[in-house]
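Q: How would the structure tokens look for this protein?
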Amino acid sequence: MQKYSDDPGTGHGRNPCSVPSKRRPFLSRLPGWRNLVRLSYVFLFAYTGYSKLLDHVPFTRGIARIPVLGHFPEAIGWGVPLLELVLALGMVVPERRVQRVSFGISVTLMATFTLYLLLMVSLVKEKLCHCGGVIGSLGWMEHLMFNAAILALGIWSTRK
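A: Here is the predicted structure in token form.
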């Protein structure tokens, strides 16, 4: 026998009640959890992009010292922080499609940064990191762990 309700979820009245068939994981049940992760990316990308633009000359000089990327220091020196700021803005505009695309690109960019850090920690004697602000003051393993955690949350949040 099916329960009916005037107020869905109460079990009384004319409308069928919805009964969840499976228990969702704890994090999925928290309201706005994915929004919290997305807003964390907004803050992180806006903060680091702004910090890199404030310290543009040292950031560009540091990029010039990286073996493969050093051929394009000005393009990367302007491009990365501007891309971070555009993505941060894209994640807060009212259009949901723009938010999703910006967030997906942000997670991909975070994966790229994390891979760069992993290669630096593993292969290079002289570590070259040019992250802005407080994040740049982290040790190499702390920075890698921070990026890995943020990346894992981003990947989790992009799944439906």
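Strands lie at 4-5, 15-16.

DSSP finds six helices and two strands in the chain.

Upvote if useful.
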